[in-house]
Write a structure and sequence with these properties.
Length: 615
């Protein structure tokens, strides 16, 4: 056992040393001179409930240049100032906020610095009337040469311009340098500026962004090392705040802005846009470190905690010790409140840094099988199941990144497939390879499906149904090139608000998406329905609800504690809710003041009762 862990540590040290050398060789430098007219690097924005938030990113302010900036829109054939702000140091970010924004029109904007530097873009019209809402999703923007870091992102940008998504989502690791976020954040903006300047964009930082190999935030405590295994944040608080200000200050206001330990802020929130509602999570921030699990399992961790387990004889159920957290109480409270908020929304999605299962069993190299990876949201299991049990209440699909490996999974809690679908997008540039390559085929496979699909227990013995995986090519992994063998790429999610269908597209790099001959990764596209995100195979029926008007919100609550069981904006005028357990329930039909409540409604195996609602 000691030999196994010793080899793991040696491998990690070699890997980290290699990364350090590569990073030094690939060190970015600011130009010796940046003209005042080029002082503004790029800008990010969102519009939520008629509030515009835009953050302009500046190059360093020099000499006696002003630290003030203004935001202008083009109206009546002239530029009009609508907001002013001060550029924040360190980080040179200029956050703007405009209340009572009219999102029914498309408007040109520009950031103005001293009437010398201007940065222009388009503030999009709310696409609430579009039948199809499109989101482009990205993760893991590796900087390392030889593995795609030195390859232009222009192929991605060109395709996104053709797709014309309504929202962009970068799920983390936009920056891979662990000490120079600002410098590499400027490179990120240079690479993707042509699409983010004109499209609402969500960016959330992950472990590499904040200067760590892994992140178990544990409520903001001080970490002992960059490996982060004991929990907390390693870099100075000022650095963490600078990173989060640059990447998240343009997001809608946090649900609860109370800082965590060390005064580190939070940004978990929701975004309503285009008839969609997105919950934006910080799945690393409150997650427990590994010290407690190591303390309770000294036979597995004789020399302290490790990030992964390779010994197949370890019982990983013992890793789920009492007192561990995943999302934490605050974010679970947020998700519960968000579940029943359907104003201006017909479909919901949860956006996170990583996924709630371990869909990889080889990491780094395809040489020895990995049993358990604590970096995933497969652990701790109790926290994982609690999060999924809340997320499925709103029939939400999940979209995330981090794993470098594109996948679509249907999660299971008590039974296979009783929770929602998750789409993990592939890495933009895939430096650290991962594979899902189980020795035995999955259960209940679809006809002619690859052996890596079907029902599995992941390394932490969680139930998951694997629908598709974009594995790197074996055995001939090529370094660099066009990244075709390294399974790099990005995801597109299409929401049909008429049918309530959701389609996942998974594209590789250097592929023209408009070419009819172009193919996605094997297994994609995948289409599901909104209701597939909370499937009850057995269970009990509540009465059939018939409404006078279409698309009402139907919420089911438990009579004993008023807890939400499910909440859905139905399609049409007829709906029959289903529940897992027998008992008495409360039915709420409608929303706001225009809502009718029915109490003490019994659930039955077969229920033919009809409730007519005159809304």
């Amino acid at each position: 056992m000691k030999t196994v862990f010793k080899k793991a540590i040696i491998g990690l040290v070699v890997c980290v040393s290699f990364l350090h050398i590569q990073a030094q060789e690939n060190l970015l430098k600011l130009p010796d001179y940046i003209a005042p007219k080029d002082r503004i690097a790029f800008a990010l924005y969102t519009i939520h409930e008629n509030t515009l938030k835009l953050t302009a990113q500046f190059y360093p302010i020099e000499n006696f240049e002003s630290f003030e900036a203004s935001l202008e829109i083009f109206q009546d054939n002239e530029w009009k100032k609508i907001a002013e702000t001060r550029i924040i140091y360190p980080g040179y970010t200029a956050p703007f906020r405009v209340e009572n924004w009219d999102d029914t029109k498309e408007v040109r904007y520009r950031v103005n610095h001293s009437n010398i530097a201007f940065y222009e873009g388009v503030l999009r019209k709310n696409p609430i009337d579009k039948e199809e809402f499109v989101m482009a999703a990205f993760t893991c923007n590796s900087i390392y040469p030889g593995h795609g870091g030195d390859i232009s992102r222009e192929d991605i940008v060109a395709n996104v311009k053709k797709i014309k998504p309504d929202l962009l989502f970068f799920s983390g690791d936009q920056v891979y340098d662990h000490s120079q976020h600002y410098l590499y954040w400027l490179k990120f903006g240079k690479d993707f500026g042509d699409i983010i300047r004109n499209t609402p964009t969500i960016t959330i930082p992950d472990d590499h962004d904040i200067g760590q190999g892994n992140l178990w935030g544990q409520g903001g405590k001080k970490a002992k090392s960059r490996r982060g295994k004991s929990g907390g944040y390693y870099m100075p608080v000022a650095y963490i705040k600078e990173v989060e200000r640059a990447q998240t200050s343009h997001l809608p206001d946090p649900y609860d802005a109370t800082p965590i330990e060390q005064g580190i802020g939070v940004y978990y929130t929701d975004l309503k846009w285009g008839g969609m509602s997105f919950a934006i999570l910080e799945d690393r921030k409150f997650k427990s470190g590994l010290d407690l699990v190591a303390e309770k399992n000294p036979d597995v961790f004789p020399n302290g905690s490790y990030e992964a387990i390779f010994n197949p004889n370890v019982d990983t159920k013992k890793m789920d010790v009492d007192g561990l957290k995943l999302l934490g109480y605050r974010q679970l409270t947020f998700l519960e409140a968000w579940t029943t908020d359907w104003e201006d929304a017909s479909m919901k999605t949860v956006l996170s840094q990583t996924i709630f299962s371990q869909v990889n069993n080889y990491s780094g190299k395809h040489d020895r099988e990995l049993l358990a990876d604590f970096d995933t949201n497969a652990w701790p299991q109790t926290g994982r199941n609690k999060a999924l049990s809340v997320i499925r209440k709103s029939f939400s699909v999940m979209v995330a990144g981090d794993q470098h490996l594109g996948s679509v999974v249907k999660h299971g809690i008590d039974d296979f497939g009783d929770a929602g679908y998750s789409f993990c997008t592939p890495a933009i540039a895939n430096f650290w390879l991962r594979w899902w390559d189980p020795k035995k085929p999955g259960g209940n496979q679809e006809k002619n499906a690859p052996k890596y699909t079907g029902d599995f227990l992941d390394g932490f013995q969680n139930k998951m149904t694997v629908k598709a995986v974009g594995n790197p090519t074996l055995p001939e992994i090529k370094e660099g090139g066009k990244l075709s063998t390294r399974a790099a790429g990005y995801g597109i999610v299409r929401y049909n608000k008429t049918t309530r269908d959701i389609t996942f597209d998974c594209w590789g790099r250097n592929v023209d998406v408009t070419d009819s001959k172009s193919k996605q990764y094997p297994g994609w596209p995948i289409t599901i329905n909104q209701k597939d995100n909370f499937t009850i195979q057995k269970g009990f029926q509540l009465p059939i609800i018939k409404t006078a008007s279409s698309d009402q919100v139907v919420t089911v609550r438990n009579t004993t504690n008023n807890e939400v069981v499910s909440s859905l904006r139905i399609k049409g005028k007829k709906h029959q809710p289903k529940v897992i357990n027998a008992g008495s329930y409360i039915l709420e039909v409608g929303e706001g003041k225009n809502k009718k409540v029915y109490r003490n409604i019994s659930a039955k195996r077969k229920n033919r009762k009809v409730i007519k609602v005159g809304l």
